[in-house]
Amino acid sequence: MPTWKEITDRNPQHSANYAQRWDRIAAEGKDIFGEARLVDALVDRKSRILDAGCGQGRIGGYLAQRGHTVTGVDIDPYLIGIARSRHPEATWQVGDLVGEGLPRGPFDAIVSAGNVLTFLEPGTQVTAWSNLAAVLAPGGRIAAGFGLDRGYSLEQCQADIEEAGLTTSLLLSSWDIRPFTRGKSTFAVVIAQRAGHDRPRAKTATIDLGRLRKL
Q1: How would you classify the pairing of strands 136-147 and 187-194?
Q2: Contact yes or no for 192/169 (Cβ under 8 A)
Q3: Is 211 helix (H, G, I), strand (E, B) or coil?
Q4: pTM for this entry
Q5: In a 10 Å sphere around its CB, with 0-12 CB exposed, 13-18 middle and 19+ buried, how is residue 149 labelled?
Q6: pLDDT tens readout for residues 33-53
C-alpha cells in the first residue's frame, strides 16, 4: 500500500476529498462514530486520550464532546486544520507517528482508526507502536484497527506489539466488538496494553456494552 504522503503528493486534492467523503457519509445518516464509542467504553470519565492519525477529528472530536481531554496528531496539515476549526475543545497538532511530533503523555487510551497503521512506510509500524507505548499511562490501552488486505498482516502486527513491550489483550473483527475469526475475518481491531500491566482495580476492566449503543 502507498503511504499517506505518497498518496497526497500524487493527488493534492486527496485530503479534501477524504474529509468530504466522511461529511457525505454523515449527511446520509450513517454512523461514523463506532470507533469512538468503543474507546469511550474502555476508559473512565474525563480520561486523557490520544487520537493517533486523527484526520479531521472525527473520533477525537466525539470523545472530547463527552468530556475527555483529547489530543489529536496527524501528518496531514490540511486535516489538522479542519479538526481545529470544528473541535476547538480538543488539542490538534501535526506530527508523525514514526518520527517526532507525538505529544507528551501519559494517555489513558490511544486510538488509531481509519487504517492509519497501513498508511505508514512498510516496516515502520513497530516504531509507531513503540512511540505510542512510550506515552501510554500504566494500565492504559491502545485500540488500533486496519484491514488485513492492506499489506500489514495480523501476525506482523502482533510481533510489532510484542517488540514494543506491549501485549494484545483483545482481538476483534470490527469496532462494534464482533469476534475475530482467523482465516475468515478481513479486518482487525487490536487492543493492546503494556505487557504485565493490568488496569488498576479502581477502574472497570470490562467493556460497557451500553455505551456502545447508538444514541
Answers
A1: antiparallel
A2: yes
A3: helix
A4: 0.89
A5: exposed
A6: 999 999 999 999 999 999 999
